Amino acid sequence: MTSGLTGTSSEKRFGKQKTGDRMKKFLIVGSGYIGKVIEDEIRKAGHAFTTFDNNLLGLQKPGKDEAGNETIMDDSLNENGPLSKFTNYDVMINTAAVVGDPACLVDTRFALQNNCVGTRNMVEKANRDGKRIIHLSTCSLYGAEKCTEENPLKEADHTFPIDFYGQTKFQQERFVTERAKLYTVFRLGTAYGQSPRMRYDLVIPTFTAKAVNEGKITVFGGDQWRPFIHIRDVARAVIWFSERGIGGIFNLASENLTIKQLAYLIKESLTETKVEINDMIQDPRNYIVSSDKVRRLNFEFKYDVKYGIKEMAEAKTIKEYDRAIYHNDKLATLKKMGIKI
Fold first, then answer.
1. Residue pair 194/299 in contact by the 8 Å Cβ criterion
2. Residue 251: CB partners within 8 Å, gap ≥ 6?
């Protein structure tokens, strides 16, 4: 599958518009860790949005903000609800998913429905409405591919996810790229950064929280590579590409680090931190990705891992990082048990 940006055929496929065109209204599907920050960045950019969320975790508050941006409770699986009938938007941003392998494995049937059927429904809706869908995918699609710093993974390289979550995201991406008339897909590196809907089940937030609260980070293996992206750079990319009508598939990661390098980077900022390496458990996932494709379009990343560490270390929520509310797998378990959050 190719996703070039030049030539008549690619412009027809991806709906290329004149650089500088600005979108007036975003439809955001899902308002979680990244979705909340997208909302904030849309406000800053002077755009408007309507968010639909299924309030699966009981954490959302429906209503309007001072600018008239609205949050409405509905589900991408509800084919006849308010979301299916909503048409007052220019671009759809699809963030809705059960995120992370541990959370998906709590209820695999629901994860398949929510991640795959929900995305199919949103693709069909965007097509009916004649709108672009911006879909947040993941670099987990690359699995354990062979890569080096000199030869990082590019968008046209083979994808073969090795965990269940990655497999659901692979199917999501297929629905988008094979069925959507207008699409932009971002394969995100591992996300980090402070959000109103914080997550402490991701590696950088987890390590930072451990360093702040326990003064120690335990690294399992550590030689495996990961790409990383600040959630505000994700939001900025969504808006930037929407304003310019740019389509295709894009890796989105500002830095590649080994998990061991990450741990010692945190130690540089939080100097009292002890780093322990445990070689008994190895993570087979390993990927270094290239974001040259987005850089060639002159999109610039604004945030780095050092900034994210400092930002999160100073956040109020870090002192209570082990609460279930900040962990997708714990929340999924409570939901399956029927326990109200």
1. no
2. 139, 153, 154, 155, 186, 187, 189, 227, 289, 290, 291, 293, 294
| Domains delineated in the chain | 8-197+229-254+287-303 (3.40.50.720)
User: What burial class does residue 261 get, using C-beta atoms within 10 Å of its C-beta: 0-12 exposed, 13-18 middle, 19+ buried?
Assistant: middle
The amino acid at 148: T
Kindly give the confidence (pLDDT) of every residue in the chain, 341 residues in length, as a single tens digit, with 9 standing for 90 and above. Answer: 333 333 333 333 344 433 445 647 999 999 999 999 999 999 999 999 999 998 876 677 889 999 999 999 999 999 899 999 999 999 999 999 889 899 999 999 999 999 999 999 999 999 999 999 999 999 999 987 788 999 999 999 989 898 999 999 999 999 999 999 999 999 999 999 999 999 999 999 999 999 999 999 999 988 899 999 999 999 999 999 999 999 999 999 999 999 999 999 999 999 999 999 988 777 777 889 999 999 999 999 999 999 999 999 999 999 999 999 999 888 889 878 877 66
Angle at 236 between CA 318 and CA 313, to 5 degrees: 15
Beta bridge partners of 153: 289
What is the spatial distance between Cα 240 and Cα 260, in angstroms, rounded to a whole number? 33
Query: In 3-state terms, what secondary structure has residue 36?
Result: helix
Say what the alpha-carbon torsion angle 330, 336, 338, 341 is, to the nearest 10 degrees: 30
For 100, phi then psi, to 5°, come to 100, 140
Q: C-alpha 280: how far from its chain's center?
A: 30
53 forms beta bridges with 73
